[in-house]
Amino acid sequence: MTYPWNYEPHYSHKVHLDRLRELEALLNARQFDSVRQRIAQLEVQDIASLLEDFAKQTQILFFRTLPRKTAAKVFAYLPHAEKEDLLGTLSDEDALHLVKNLDADDRAAFLDELPAEIVQALTQRLPHDKLKEVQLLLGYPAESVGRLMRPDYVAIPENWSVEQALNYLRSLHQDSTRMNTLFITDEQQRLTDALHIRKLALAADPTMLIRQLMDHRVIYIHAQEDREKAVNMMQHYDLNALPVVDNEGVMLGMVTVDDILDVAEAETTEDFHKMGSVGVINLNINDAGAFLLYRKRIGWLLLLVFVNIFAGLAIATFEDMIAAVVALVFFLPLIIGSSGNAGAQSSTLMVRSLATGDVRLADWGKLLFKEVSVAAALGLTMGGAIALIGFWQGGEALAWVVGLSMVAVVVVGSLMGMSLPFLLSKLRIDPATASAPLITSMADIIGILIYFSIAVAIIPIA
Fold first, then answer.
1. Cβ distance 243 to 220 under 8 Å?
2. Which of 284, 408, 419, 448 is most buried, most CB within 10 Å of its CB?
3. Minimal CA–CA distance to 256: which of 184, 179, 192?
4. Which helix (H) or strand (E) holds 262?
5. How many H-runs (helices) and E-runs (strands) does the chain carry?
6. Coil, strand or helix: which one is 221?
7. Full-prediction pTM beyond 0.70?
8. Cα–Cα distance between 362 and 366 in angstroms, integer?
9. Are residues 139 and 159 in the same domain?
10. Could you tell me if residue 57 is inside a domain?
11. Considering the domain boundaries, does residue 379 fall inside one?
């Protein structure tokens, strides 16, 4: 049987499993040279993915089999839990080697989550320059751009010539992806521009000064800003690298597109958790313990229990009407369910639009008019359908009650779902907190009051 070991652009699950089985067989047979030959043809990201799927003991054996340089690259792509487990099985020297070879931002994030005694043991042996980078990054707030930035950027003084700059770049021997964007600074290390390396390489006159190539149209971000703003800026301006400066405009580091992809994924996941009335879980769901999941979910569920008590009180207020027209109960779940569903739909659209920057607080008035139009059309369509059932169940009066109620609850629920995220944004609260369960519970209460109020107005009772 042959196994596909060379790089494939469409890396299938079957290929992954085939590779996993063969590597496991080779490791069990202690054929370590064969293992190294196989993984030499793979990308480090694929090796990391294979390592994650091994059993713990095989995982450790596989990692120790990797060449030291490859192991350091693979380590960078592992989840935090896997990194911590592997560190505990390695010698102090090997562990230090892996941590030293992480990118500065990844190293700071990793050390920030380790137990204090392990961090102390590692930082005492880190080279001074790398320790200083860690201290710099960890000095910024957890969700700030400063925590995310990479301090190993390439800066060129604006008073250099093109020839000087090119000679300097050749002397660095760095990965070309880090040098695509060159940041230009003045004598005080303040950011003055950003140039693509292509512009430098194609300059006609090598004696031309860098400042002569500049247009001073540089996009930058302050280190204290929230990292989500960096995501929005890089998406909006289509940047591969975003320079980070302090309050004086001095260049501190840069945020790259691969960092932004990780942040965008984390922020989206966080929003989904909030919209599902779940506390933020900073772990893979497979790694999260049962108690952690219970603790993250129980708070909102208890709150919603108390909110829904008001729904029961609202129903109790109209017990005489219910006793007189029992058919009203038949339509109650349908009416309040439609109100909550319309609110949840509208809330989801607004929360996501606010998160992506598609809408702003100033757009509320325009969107309010549009939402009224859409909700009215939805309500009339749904109301017409339910009115026919109401006529069949209880005659003309009941048909009017359920039809008008459906229109009213859909409009009110939709407006509530649309407006609450804007209100929370105005109060500087994450609009994702306007979760579907919360909107649904609030819309249920209002839907009950609307439904029975219309019933009281239309159907006479003794």
1. yes
2. 448
3. 179
4. helix 257-275
5. 21, 6
6. strand
7. no
8. 8
9. no
10. yes
11. yes
Residues 6+ apart with CB under 8 A from 265: none
**At which of 94, 118, 143 does a domain end?**
143
Q: Which of 91, 120, 143 is the last residue of a domain?
A: 143
Task: From first to last of the 462 residues of the chain, give the pLDDT tens digit.
Answer: 344 555 454 457 788 888 888 888 988 898 988 888 888 888 888 888 888 888 888 888 888 898 888 888 888 888 877 888 888 888 888 888 888 888 888 888 888 888 888 888 888 888 888 888 888 888 888 889 998 898 888 899 999 999 999 999 888 876 555 678 889 999 999 999 999 888 888 888 889 999 999 988 899 999 999 888 888 888 888 888 899 999 999 999 999 888 888 777 777 776 666 666 565 666 666 666 677 777 777 777 777 777 778 878 888 888 888 777 777 888 888 888 888 888 888 888 887 787 777 788 888 888 888 899 999 999 999 999 888 888 887 788 888 988 999 999 999 989 988 888 888 888 877 776 656 677 778 888 888 899 888 988 888 765
Query: Helices marked H in 66-155 — which ranges?
Result: 68-76, 80-87, 92-100, 104-113, 116-123, 128-138, 145-148
What residues does 243 pair with on adjacent strands? 254
- Closest by CA to 375, choosing from 422, 409, 324, 426, is 409
Q: How much is the CA Rg of the chain, to the nearest whole Å?
A: 30
